[in-house]
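Entry 12.
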Amino acid sequence: MALGDAHAPGATPLDPDELEGLIPPHITTQGELNEWEQSNIIKGQDWALRSRNANANRVLTDRFVRLLHKRMFDDTWRWAGEYRTSGKNIGIEWIHIPEQVKVACENAQHWVENQVFEPSELCVRLHHRLVVIHPFPNGNGRHARLLADLLLMRHFRVKRLSWGGQDLTRPGDNRERYLSALREADQGAFSPLLEFATQ
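Predicted 3D structure (tokens):
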């Protein structure tokens, strides 16, 4: 199977220009890409967990949203940390991404400051909003989950979410449950996504 020919259900296909941004020349299959990205994500996660002062005021900014994505994918994609400039099968129109990420961060800051939601629900709602915006060409779900977990661990000082306890990048029942819960959240029903994330 050639790279870009197959995607997990709910994954966003990359266009040819975005595929040109692939850094490692030896990757030719989706499986190889998944493994390489996972290694890059672990490195980005380690960086994020070592970051000082990773509180809500720092994490909930447009700058940090982009920086975290860059750190998660900088060994994989030349465009890591840059907002997409193309339409996708999911997400808002790309021209509105910077404004909507800023609004999402400001809303989450308000939720934190005013204790609008308990920490897990707040982070699940933030994750959902970022997935809806879909700011980057690739890695949006993984990025939004790590950002939510980072906020929980570093600001609220509680453990990260389980997100179903299994790999969500591979097709299967766990991914289907996650996508189903996201669709319900699209309609305003957040309980299934919160339950999935905290089980």
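Annotation: Residues 74 and 98 are 20 Å apart (CA to CA). The radius of gyration is 16 Å.
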